[in-house]
Write a structure and sequence with these properties.
The chain has 289 residues and is of the alpha+beta class. 30% of the residues lie in helices and 28% in strands.
């Protein structure tokens, strides 16, 4: 894979490879795919480039919000990374910062784990909600449903009060308000392209004493996108995101622990096709800003 580099990645995540370079990092979006925190042996050819380009487009759209990006042209990376053709369009040079170990999840619609919790308890993220809401119902306003990141095992859903207690009211408020702002503006931007942003998650870090936006941004690996024309309450609309994989896996007798089941070619093809469609439509509508 890495033709010039003699060193292995400093860190290998589920779908990312990370190289440390002094005070910076190179993040590589691979073609690996994961679900329920399990990585599949099959790879989706070209997926990494698509995710990286979608993320870059959104970072540009929200450029007034400080982020970790330094350079996206691999030819301008430090040596020997600038000699790696494979890094083209799938990697970024970023600032190394102190990660804030929470996923800042924003939901505009009742779906996924949020719907499962509501159907079982009447709550979403440990808060009570009115009875009678259906799957995929639009919420009165976007809600913040954080999760604590864990180095091993699954991330842990927590209440706003728990997060506030753990990191302090000032930082909590900044993360919540910034997350909802990005979600709301992104939702409005893609609506004219006939898309719905159901939910998404953000990550933040501390750099030079200030909060910055890090990791990926509004990709189909970190967000749920629906077609507006096929949306209605009471069922899960067709997905343009990784939910395609999750939906398939829910039909299997699999306990969601390694090893991952074999991923059929038709599912791989569908994921790649939808990701390509989403990239085209997102970049089209947000480039009009």
């Amino acid at each position: 894979m890495y033709q010039v580099l003699k060193s292995q990645p400093s860190y290998t995540g589920k779908v990312r490879d990370v190289f440390e370079i002094d005070e910076n990092l190179i993040l590589v979006s691979t073609d690996r795919i994961s679900a329920f925190d399990v990585v599949f042996s099959e790879q989706i050819s070209g997926k990494g480039q698509i995710l990286n380009q979608i993320s870059l487009a959104w970072f540009e759209y929200f450029k007034k919000i400080p982020n970790h990006l330094i350079e996206s042209d691999h030819l301008k990376f430090p040596e020997p990374f600038n000699q790696e053709p494979w890094l083209k369009d799938r990697s970024v040079l970023v600032k190394k910062c102190e990660r804030i170990d929470y996923e800042c999840v924003v939901r505009g619609y009742l779906s996924g784990s949020g719907y499962k919790e509501y159907a079982k308890t009447g709550q979403i993220a440990f808060k009570d909600y009115p009875k009678g809401m259906k799957e995929s119902s639009k919420l009165p306003e976007p809600i913040f449903t954080p999760a604590r990141k864990n180095d091993s095992g699954h991330d842990e859903n927590i209440s706003e009060e728990t997060m506030k207690t753990e990191i302090g009211n000032e930082l909590f408020t900044q993360l919540k308000e910034t997350s909802i702002k990005i979600y709301s503006e992104a939702s409005e931007a893609i609506e004219k392209e006939g898309l719905i942003l159901c939910d998404t998650k953000f990550e933040f870090g501390i750099y030079d004493g200030k909060v910055i936006l890090i990791d990926e941004l509004l990709t189909p690996d970190s967000s749920r996108y629906w077609e507006k024309e096929s949306y209605r309450e009471g069922f899960t609309p067709p997905s343009l995101d990784k939910q395609i994989l999750r939906n398939y896996l829910e039909t299997l007798d699999w306990d969601k622990n390694p090893p991952a089941p074999k991923l059929p070619q038709n599912i791989q093809d569908e994921i790649l096709e939808k990701y390509k469609i989403l990239e085209k439509r997102i970049t089209k509508c947000i480039s009009l800003k």
